[in-house]
Design a protein that fits this description.
This protein has about 90 residues and is mainly α. It contains 1 helix and no strands. The mean pLDDT is about 95.
Length: about 90
C-alpha cells in the first residue's frame, strides 16, 4: 500500500530540504574560505622557496669565490714569487 504524502509531510520535507541546503551553502562557504587561505599560503611558500633558491645560488657563488681565493693563497704560499729578481 503506497503512502500518501500529506500537506504536513510535504511541509516537513520542504523544511528539511531548506535546512540541508542552508547547511550545504554554509559548508561550501567554509570550504571556499579554506581554499582561499590555502591558495594564499601556497603563494607565500612559493615566494619563500624562490627566496631560498636565490640564497642557495648566492652561497654557491660565494663558495666558488672562496675556493678560488684559497687556491690563489695556497699557490702563493707554495710557490712564492721571486723577491727583487732573486729566487
Amino acid at each position: 500500500m503506497a503512502q500518501r504524502w500529506t500537506d504536513e509531510m510535504l511541509d516537513r520535507q520542504a523544511e528539511e530540504n531548506t535546512r540541508a541546503f542552508r547547511e550545504l551553502r554554509e559548508a561550501i562557504g567554509r570550504l571556499e574560505t579554506q581554499v582561499a587561505a590555502n591558495t594564499q599560503a601556497i603563494a607565500e611558500l612559493r615566494e619563500g622557496q624562490a627566496m631560498m633558491m636565490q640564497i642557495v645560488m648566492q652561497q654557491q657563488t660565494n663558495i666558488q669565490e672562496l675556493r678560488q681565493d684559497t687556491r690563489r693563497i695556497l699557490d702563493a704560499l707554495i710557490n712564492p714569487p721571486p723577491m727583487n729578481g732573486h729566487h
